[in-house]
């Protein structure tokens, strides 16, 4: 025969439940801690199991990606970095070598006898969308009252000269100039003022080895500070030994 339910048995049951609550709280706290600590790893694992998750995340990030200021707008979701080179003899080349006086003599291929011109007729075509034609007027208007600097080696110099060749035809003669100050090359449209025009220049000349050592240390410091070495792999490519010959 069952014993009648009494107030004492009820109170003992509540006490047992109360004793279980600290364990339950500890378990919940541990679950929350693991979720916060390893949440990204779980997301990466799910992304590997279901590739659609990665595509959705990438699509949402690209939706907020800022577009280049020299070509106008492109369709939403257009991946400018996924595509191929296509032949285009109707809109290329954007400028002729003979029309741009700012190209260095060692880069004037046609003047030095290069017989073919096919390399001028290739353009980049993204998959799934069209890249608008370069708009020199839009770029000049966007840069009005501003300064744009290219910092780097001969590759950056080539990009810089190519940009100048794309823009200079729209600037009237007498309102543009190109000057070289030691390692600085300045293209001026109308009036540009900057620290490179100061009479007193705080510049220390270094040997090639010392300058290269400083650049390598600076690059390594930046990579350690800004990149997750567990998730990102960094490749460094040095200058070709025959570059300066």
UniProtKB/TrEMBL annotation:
<keyword id="KW-0812">Transmembrane</keyword>
<protein>
    <submittedName>
        <fullName>PROTEIN TRICHOME BIREFRINGENCE-LIKE 33 ISOFORM X1</fullName>
    </submittedName>
</protein>
<dbReference type="Pfam" id="PF14416">
    <property type="entry name" value="PMR5N"/>
</dbReference>
<dbReference type="Pfam" id="PF13839">
    <property type="entry name" value="PC-Esterase"/>
</dbReference>
<dbReference type="InterPro" id="IPR026057">
    <property type="entry name" value="TBL_C"/>
</dbReference>
<keyword id="KW-0735">Signal-anchor</keyword>
<dbReference type="InterPro" id="IPR025846">
    <property type="entry name" value="TBL_N"/>
</dbReference>
<keyword id="KW-0472">Membrane</keyword>
<dbReference type="GO" id="GO:0016413">
    <property type="term" value="F:O-acetyltransferase activity"/>
</dbReference>
<dbReference type="GO" id="GO:0016020">
    <property type="term" value="C:membrane"/>
</dbReference>
<dbReference type="InterPro" id="IPR029962">
    <property type="entry name" value="TBL"/>
</dbReference>
<feature type="transmembrane region" description="Helical">
    <location>
        <begin position="20"/>
        <end position="39"/>
    </location>
</feature>
<dbReference type="GO" id="GO:0005794">
    <property type="term" value="C:Golgi apparatus"/>
</dbReference>
<comment type="similarity">
    <text>Belongs to the PC-esterase family. TBL subfamily.</text>
</comment>
<feature type="domain" description="Trichome birefringence-like C-terminal">
    <location>
        <begin position="192"/>
        <end position="244"/>
    </location>
</feature>
<feature type="domain" description="Trichome birefringence-like N-terminal">
    <location>
        <begin position="77"/>
        <end position="130"/>
    </location>
</feature>
<keyword id="KW-1133">Transmembrane helix</keyword>
<feature type="domain" description="Trichome birefringence-like C-terminal">
    <location>
        <begin position="131"/>
        <end position="186"/>
    </location>
</feature>
